[in-house]
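Question (not urgent): is this output format expected?
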Amino acid sequence: MTKGTHTPVPKASGGALLGWSVVVVLMVIGMFVAYFTLNAGQVYVVSETESYTQYSSTNSIDEWLPKISGEAREAVSNGAEISGERVIATTEENKAFTSEVGEKAYTDAVSKQVQSRVEAGNPVDMVHLTGTATSVSWLPTDQEAKEGMTATGTVSSWEVTSSLPYNMPAADRPANATFSVSRTVGIWLAAIFTLAIMSFLCGDNPFYKTAEAILVGSSAGYAMAYAFYTGIVDQLLINLFPGLVREWTSPGLPWSYDWDWVYVIPGILAIMLVCRLLPKGGWIARWPLAFIIGATAGFRLTSHLESDFLLQIKGTITTLWAENANGQFDLWNSVGAIVILVGVLLCLIYFFFSMEHKGAVGKAARGGIFVLMVTFGAAFGLTVMGRITLLTERFDFLFKEWLHLM
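Got this back:
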């Protein structure tokens, strides 16, 4: 440390700057050569037009359905009218109702559904739907419509683009194949960022820092968007405002979804959590945060108790005399069961501190240390192999999809 208030940061020498400049120039030259000689990163695509036509079909309806069922909500949304209501509370009432209205208005499938709910002690509110219901469906334009379907005149068309294999010779490409600038730029950016990350092997440098910052920022943005749609939309809004979600993001949302007041509670907690951004109301966010931490701890406790404790006991308490399907002695399974039992006992002795680790207890404790070291080594090796797998995938991308050398 110097006597000043700040420690001076050593500046890069002229030789280091010259070295990095030479490396960058060589890399740029190499990329140009690879692009023009190996067609590196070039992507060709084939586009096909798909077209769907909208049809409407109007059907008369005369049916009894559970009031809360998705079929009843869909029929009412399509124009059917509710002309009567009925409550079925017992199996006798369900059988009598079948005989009263007939199997055509009260189908066997609906009757069985109501029967199962009544047997569980839940009365069912039934509604009689009459009138006509107009439904809308989409079919491929070249497909013949079914009887009773009328075209509305609305046609939706779009292009479906698929990439050709990178190693396909130019002579074998389809006549409508075109060069994709956007996908080629994407391949090149992925390759450049991969090399920038790997440049950390030569030491910390601006290329690595830039790629790292872009990776962290893009990952955070993707995680935020993914969490919004999977958490806020698919879990919260879909149960509070199913009609809005059906018109906004999920037109194929089943009609069985209905407003559920229980989800008002997480909605309020979510709004309270956003109060953390307020200049003077940040303390409000402590309450939902405490609830989230407590609930997460409870869920994780039960899962870890089962996976790390109960399953360990189950794997230890097993027969030491293993037999195969034919009833014959299985040597290797028996040896494995004995090794697991002995290893667990040795580890438990090592963590038993009420007795001094001397004599037989000390030797057993040292054996427990050996088992623990083997376990830690296997876990570390598994972690290293996972990282090596990621490395091989990046090399596979560089040599196959980018340089087209394999």
